[in-house]
């Protein structure tokens, strides 16, 4: 009886342990990030932002190449991804950022060299601000050489044969109502715009080679800029608008950066090395490198769920990484070319824009997995 009782007890313990393990596994599986919805919109989708005040998703659409048409800002329902509003913009729209306090939405018009301001309360564009020399010349009624448009040739030769400085990424510091825009060039710049009247307040020169992504740390008065050409991060003091430090990005061809303001860590998406680097923003030291899918491009941080989302353009996936353990939680197929990710911290939902593939000669232009928005649930 004693032996039988011992066997029965061991059996019960093993069964209990297996049940607990199974329950834990099921719970983890249920909590794993997953694609909940994917909707095709068309129109040359580019970037995405989430508005907590409006409880809506906004995406930019640049329109078709060579069409001569302006762009669009599309408002989506955050649960169904149904189109709620479609605002026609004066220029082709690429980058996007939002001041949720003032309800002003900003788009970079890369080809036109300008920044547009959309008042979400009225649904109207209240200003388009020329930033590049080309755009300023156009605004003054002059006819300068045009930018290289989607692989086209310039109308006139340029110094060193390069492109004019073109606006790419836009970021907002809501605390100071300041808008920052990167200007991509061999000697990159950052335009500083006063959000109270949407005028150009300053231009930060010589930020680095090919300045692309931006991240604002308002509590610490820091702005972090990615210099792809130098494989580095430039640190700007937002009180003085001065570059105060530079350090290695931790990977090859860095594209974009996100910041955890609580721990002052930077998450850098490196397209050339297919990874995301975690950097201590205070010391510039590399903490960890996490492999992602091919062509890491967009990166966002969920401060509530403590997760890093990386859009992998080449792989067609989004990597979801635990920001504490740096464990890869999921590699999710979202679309042809995942570009940017926006987070709703309240629900921990993530929204991804997927660009369409450029058709090869003789192939159909239709791409069912491109020009889509993907909803990822935690």
Q: How would you portray this structure in words?
A:
The structure is a single chain. The chain is mainly beta. The chain folds into 3 domains: 98 residues, Thrombin, subunit H (Beta Barrel); 83 residues, Thrombin, subunit H, CATH 2.40.10.480; 116 residues, 7 Propeller (Methylamine Dehydrogenase, Chain H). Helices cover 10% and strands 48% of the residues. The protein contains 2 helices and 28 strands. The strands form 7 sheets. A 4-stranded antiparallel β-sheet has the order 1-28-27-26, with no helix packed on it. Strands 2-3-4-5 form a 4-stranded antiparallel β-sheet, with no helix packed on it. It is globular. The N terminus is likely disordered.
Number of domains: 3
* Pattern of helices and strands: HEEEEEEEEEHEEEEEEEEEEEEEEEEEEE
Anisotropy-based shape: globular
Which structural class is indicated by helix and strand composition? mainly beta
- What would the average pLDDT be, to the nearest integer? 88
Number of helices: 2
């Amino acid at each position: 009886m004693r032996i039988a009782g011992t066997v029965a007890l061991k059996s019960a313990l093993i069964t209990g342990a297996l049940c607990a393990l199974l329950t834990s596994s099921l719970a983890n599986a249920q909590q794993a990030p997953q694609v909940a919805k994917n909707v095709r919109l068309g129109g040359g989708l580019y970037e995405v932002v989430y508005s907590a005040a409006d409880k809506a998703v906004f995406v930019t659409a640049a329109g078709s190449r060579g069409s001569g048409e302006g762009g669009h800002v599309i408002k989506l329902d955050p649960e169904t991804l149904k189109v709620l509003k479609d605002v026609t913009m004066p220029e082709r729209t690429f980058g996007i950022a939002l001041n949720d306090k003032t309800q002003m939405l900003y788009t970079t018009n890369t080809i036109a060299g300008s920044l547009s301001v959309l008042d979400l309360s009225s649904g109207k564009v209240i200003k388009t601000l020329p930033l590049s020399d080309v755009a300023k010349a156009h605004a003054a009624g002059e006819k300068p050489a045009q930018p290289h448009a989607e692989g086209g040739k310039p109308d006139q030769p340029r110094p060193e044969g390069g492109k004019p400085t073109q606006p790419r990424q836009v970021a907002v510091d809501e605390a100071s109502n300041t808008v920052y825009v990167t200007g991509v060039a061999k000697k990159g710049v950052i335009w500083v715009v006063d959000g109270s009247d949407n005028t150009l307040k300053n231009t930060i020169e010589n930020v680095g080679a090919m300045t692309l992504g931006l991240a604002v740390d308002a509590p610490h008065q820091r702005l972090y800029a990615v210099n792809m050409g130098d494989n580095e991060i430039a640190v700007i003091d937002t009180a003085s608008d001065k570059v105060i430090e530079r350090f290695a990005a931790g990977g090859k061809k860095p594209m974009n950066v996100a910041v955890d303001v609580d721990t002052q860590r930077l998450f850098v998406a490196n397209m050339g090395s297919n990874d995301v680097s975690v950097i201590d923003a205070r010391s510039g030291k590399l903490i960890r490198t996490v492999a992602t899918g091919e062509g890491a491009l967009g990166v966002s941080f969920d401060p509530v769920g403590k997760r890093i989302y990386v859009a992998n353009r080449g792989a067609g996936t989004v990597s979801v990484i635990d920001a504490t353990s740096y464990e890869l939680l999921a590699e999710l197929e979202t679309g042809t070319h995942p570009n940017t990710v926006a987070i709703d911290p309240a629900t921990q939902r993530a929204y991804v824009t997927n660009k369409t593939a450029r058709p090869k000669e003789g192939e159909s232009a239709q791409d069912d997995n491109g020009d889509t928005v993907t909803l990822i649930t935690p």
